Structures are given as structure tokens and as C-alpha cells.
Amino acid sequence: MTVIIAHRGASARLRENSKPAWQAALRCIPENMPLVLDVKEENQQTLLILLDFLAFRQRDNIILGLRSLHCFAFCRQHTDLAILGLLNGEEEEDAQFFALGGTTLRLWESRTSMDRIARLADQGHPMWMTVGGWGTGRELGDFAAEHLRAMQAAGVGGFLVNDPALARAALGGQI
To answer: According to the lineage, what is the superkingdom (predicted)?
Structure first.
């Protein structure tokens, strides 16, 4: 299944984190396809406007991409939408994220060990991985095929990459 991440709505054309940007993102993506709304502005007023807006949509496959445990807790009080944790990568936050009702945790390749991936997988927690970046010797989004395969085998269910076609080939077309 393909997931489209709407970076703060349809922010290439409209002011990010605005109602018009969210509306445009929803119009662009077929209702049967999951949509991740990458929410950057996480103040309570903006979150309430977004949650109010989404409350009237007949879609159950919208995922909120949020960056702080405080925002997860706030949103969980107001919605049962899935939450993608776009945290800074600190392992200490993993358990809190899932305890607050987080759905999928985004990990950073450079800040994640195979032991951590195995532990989260053993606990049944879904994970996505942002590959490359600091400390990997590769640009953010670039990957080493053998690392991608190892992370997939360990339980990572999604990857943020620069070249989706090459990633698919590296994984043997298994996405």
C-alpha cells in the first residue's frame, strides 16, 4: 500500500497548516488511499481547528503526523485518528508514545539500533524509518540496500526515501 504524506497540507500551493491546504490535500488523494497530514504547527488552537475540520470528513484513513508527546496527548483527548510519531528519535520516548495512543513511530536510521527495532517489533509496534542523514555517511533519504533489507526483515514497515523506485527494487518489489 502506498502512503502519501501531505507536508502540512498541500503546502506547495497554499499556506501550510491552513484549512485551504488541508482541503486541497484531501481532494488530491483518493478516499481509499491513506493520507498522512504532516502537522508542523502544533499549538492547541491550530490543532483544534484541524481536528474540527477533520471531524466532518468521512475518511477513517487519515493519519496525523505529530512531533511531540504533548501534542499526542492533546490530540488523543479529541480524536481517535491514527497518529504517526515524528519524534526526534530518542529511545526514551518510545514507550510514552505508544502509551499515549500513538499508532506508528517514525525512527531515524542514524539513531536506531537493530535491537531497538527488534524490541519494538516484538511488542507489536508499527515503525517507519527515515533513512540516511546525520552520521550515516548518506544524504537524508538516501539508503544502503543491505540496510533497508535488514531493517525490513527486523520489522520496519515503511521507509522515507528519496528514490522510491530504487527502494522498491532493493526490497525485491515487496512494497
So the answer is: Bacteria
Q: Is the pTM here over 0.85, yes or no?
A: no
Q: pLDDT 10s per residue in the chain (175 long)? A: 546 566 677 777 888 878 888 888 888 877 887 778 888 878 899 899 889 888 877 777 888 989 999 999 999 999 999 999 999 889 999 999 999 999 999 999 999 999 999 999 999 999 999 999 989 999 988 999 999 999 999 999 888 888 878 888 888 865 4
Q: Which three cell numbers stand for residue 41?
A: 504547527
Reference 148, options 124, 129, 121; nearest CA is: 129
Q: Give the Å distances, CA to CA, from 165 to 131, 143, 169, 172.
A: 15, 12, 6, 11
Of residues 85, 142, 83, 87, the one with CA closest to residue 111: 87
